[in-house]
Amino acid sequence: QLQASGGGLVQAGGSLRVSCVASGGTFSGYAIGWFRQAPGKEREFVSSISRSGGSTDYADSVKGRFTISRDYAKNTVYLQMNSLKPEDTAVYYCKASAPGLPVYWGQGTQVTVSS
Questions:
Q1: Structure confidence by residue, pLDDT tens digits, 50-87
Q2: Rounded to an integer, what distance in angstroms lies between the CA atom of residue 100 and that of residue 85?
Q3: Which of 80, 61, 67, 82 lies closest to 11, judged by CA?
């Protein structure tokens, strides 16, 4: 199972770090992605990190502001979000995926950026 946490309310220009913790087993063999969904909008890709941690990807809207990382010892993936904007307001979800294996989604954590 995946558990996302760390969301909250922050002013524009501020920072937050959200975490995705895997429980009940290791997710070291999974790529982890962060997605977000704002009210009335479709869920969109934010960032991802490969199984090895050696490859990362970001949506154009967050490049240069967000950083994804993973801690294998803690079975956790982090998304450090800096220079937050009101348009970053959304529920943030993490997803674990691996070829030929089921996809796992976390329950989401709310991030609200006030102007």
A1: 999 999 999 999 999 999 999 999 999 999 999 999 99
A2: 37
A3: 82
